Fold this sequence. Notes:
Strand content: 15-25%
CATH superfamily of the largest domain: Aminohydrolase, N-terminal nucleophile (Ntn) domain
Distance between the termini: 10 Å
Bound molecules: 2-deoxy-2-amino glucitol-6-phosphate
CATH class of the largest domain: Alpha Beta
Number of domains: 3
Helix content: 25-40%
CATH topology of the largest domain: Glutamine Phosphoribosylpyrophosphate, subunit 1, domain 1
Amino acid sequence: MCGIIGYCGPKKPAQVLIEGLKRLEYRGYDSSGICVNESANQLCIIKSKGKIKELQKKVSPQLAGTYGIGHTRWATHGVVNDNNAHPHKGCNGKVAIVHNGIIENYEKLREVLTEEGHVFTTETDSEVIAHLIEKYYTGDLERAVKDAVSLVKGTYGIVCMHADEPDRLIGARNGSPLVLGIGQNEMFLASDVTAIIAHTKQVVYLEDREVVNITPTSYVTTDLNDQQIEKDIEQITWELQEMEKNGYSCFMEKEIHEQPEAIKRGITGRLSLEEATAKLGGLNLTTKELIQIERVKIIAAGTSFHAGMVGAYLLESVARIPAIAELASEVRYRNPIIEKNTLYFAVSQSGETADTLYAMKELQRKGATVLGVCNVVGSTIARESDGGVYIHSGPEIAVASTKAFTSQITVFYLLSLLLARLRDMSFENGTKIINDMNSIPAKIDKILAGKNKIMELAKKYAHYPDFLFLGRGINYPVALEGALKLKEISYIHAEGYSAAEIKHGPIALINPDTPSIFLIPNDSLREKVISNMKEVKARKGKVIAVAVEGDKEVSDIADDIIEIPETHELFYPFLMVLPLQIFSYYCALELNRDVDQPRNLAKSVTVE
Ligand code: AGP
């Protein structure tokens, strides 16, 4: 949440900052701003409510400077307006900061600083950092930043500049990500690599309570006690081109279409037909340790939680290991009991979700082994987990997660196969799972080829105010995911339920204006779900069924049908979720919504 960037080097900083902010916009998009050294010892701050393009209108392409900072905001403290947008400055206008995170003790600090004569001009928690730095500044910005942050309680990723220290930026992090980019006679600081990948692929990830002091040609990393820290330089593996829309109208559309390739990337080199098993190098567990696992617990938020629910179902049914998925935000504060031989997974596309990260740390503190299932290489969860698996789906920019979901469940299919083959799954059944897995990308392609029919259905139904999404078994989490997708990008109210549950309450909602989307694969629960569908029809509810091609019984009952290819019953989540993503996407288009940047949301939720 909130994107920050800093630049010092020979290019015009305003241009570099705005271009970087556009790439960070998915982290927050209610307001933005930049600060550059317009002339010697003179800082110039420009801010704007709204998207980065509003800021861009205010910034002259001729704006000079040699160093600067920028910010795109997702408001936590203070309304959305120009004034509360970052960067913030102290009283004399010489210090400017951008901040991502939450300063929990800002009211107390603000009170003390006000008594000392500091005048605050915004409603934000972040402004206290600028005033603290100003207070402690005696000619050494790095020192002042360290003195300031040591008084701060909460989370921060900050970048600071001072008018009297040209071409120097100080970055500091605690709980909010910060990455250093090393270029040719230029340096960058940013919340994530997307902002700087156009300039460099050499990066250094900062850890909590580290401070970095950069000039165009140097960087020094220290802790808050001035102890120098040697950091490894890492290479970004993503390509700039992967972060472009590449002809699609928006990132969500592109990412929906990328799923067959993303799944192929997720399984490449990880399936062995010779041994009828999966190979997952990053687990950091011996075969003996894997065999000793008695239960699995998966923690995650949002779409990743739904993927975790599919994962838990697979681990139980394929590997016969008791497994459960839990909301990370709930686990953290429940004083969780760590049971012996329990393996934990933290699932997170971004690898930065605060709820998941802090739950993981709480579990680790109590002695649990937590493995990460992440997309973003070098993200905090990926680095701080005890091992894990990258999903390799490539950058996911749209706020609504699509390809990350199918790639996350891909990892759980592999994991379940691996663990099952270490237990009692036969070679023959292992081979079957590999073959079924390999057939999924082509089946998804087939669904994508039929997207126009789903578009027509979206046009027909987008103006209904409420929807139910109903599925059972392994497709129950898919129903939850379908409802989440629809509400987050189209703002249509939607609820996901197990189809069996509707008679325990939700069926009271059924009327001609509340359509139900039923997920009806060819599986052992098919007849039960058909009965539930009849119950809805009997109450004059409209029904859209997602069912296997040629399923006459279902198409005779449903008002509309979306057909998917047949597969092994465990693999339906891949094929069920695609139509739901496409349906939500077209509903959002029909309602003229901002598909990639829906209201009130941000891609990476780095605050609690
Ligand atoms: C998905 O469409 C949402 N934007 C959201 O629920 C997301 O999945 C959640 O915030 C978790 O994010 P993560 O995977 O990056 O941890």
